[in-house]
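From the methods appendix. Each design record in this collection lists the tokenized structure first, followed by the designed amino acid sequence. Records were kept in a plain field format so they could be parsed without special tools. The example shown here is representative of the layout used throughout.

RECORD:
FOLD TOKENS (225 positions):
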């Protein structure tokens, strides 16, 4: 089986334009970059890339098509993914308010941002899997780029491109955010920043679940002009 270099090159350029789009995966890495050790960030990124690779391979095997044919299963998966992201967000908001109350009582602000993350590898996997809309998004991208009809070697190479570009982008972003000055600023405003991160996670999760739920409750009219 031969690899189609022209197809892969066009796909790589397309993916480079897509990667900077913010989402739950980026939010997780950014939050860990300014709060945890580099090792924890690397573990979370590794888990996140594994989840992305799983979704890419599953899409190439037709999982997105199967979900489209089973609306109730897809709804359940979307609701679970949205609930997980909302749960992360609520925990961060609660932590932010707790830190704010502690800072007020102790007359101090912030604290040491270099803390140990709890199960960062699992966090990376679960956050990546919670973003279920990536399945349908990847299906559209693969179809538009012509990868669904490409050889197996070309499709596997495309998955490698996704992991390399995502890993490179998020890795560089995390490295920049681990600079001492950035972490000092975050430590100074940590309670407010954690509340902000939490609200963003809640918004991502609610949007994921509500959009799918709306389509379930109010399906588009058949034959509408």
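DESIGN:
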């Amino acid at each position: 089986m031969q690899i189609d270099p022209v197809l892969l090159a066009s796909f790589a350029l397309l993916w480079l334009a897509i990667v900077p789009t913010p989402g739950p995966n980026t939010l997780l890495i950014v939050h860990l970059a300014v709060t945890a050790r580099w090792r924890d960030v690397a573990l979370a990124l590794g888990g996140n890339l594994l989840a992305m690779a799983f979704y890419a391979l599953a899409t190439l095997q037709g999982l997105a098509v199967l979900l489209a044919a089973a609306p109730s299963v897809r709804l359940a998966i979307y609701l679970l993914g949205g609930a997980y992201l909302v749960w992360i967000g609520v925990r961060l908001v609660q932590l932010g308010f707790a830190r704010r109350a502690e800072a007020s009582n102790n007359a101090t602000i912030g604290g040491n941002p270099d803390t140990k993350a709890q199960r960062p590898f699992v966090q990376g996997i679960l956050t990546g899997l919670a973003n279920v809309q990536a399945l349908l998004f990847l299906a559209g991208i693969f179809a538009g780029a012509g990868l669904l009809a490409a050889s197996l070697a070309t499709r596997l190479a495309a998955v490698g491109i996704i992991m390399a570009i995502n890993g490179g982008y998020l890795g560089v972003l995390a490295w920049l955010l681990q600079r001492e000055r950035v972490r000092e600023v975050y430590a100074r405003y940590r309670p407010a920043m954690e509340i902000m991160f939490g609200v963003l996670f809640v918004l991502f999760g609610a949007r994921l679940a509500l959009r799918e739920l709306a389509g379930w409750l109010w399906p588009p009219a058949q034959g509408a002009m």
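APPENDIX NOTE: The mean pLDDT is 85.
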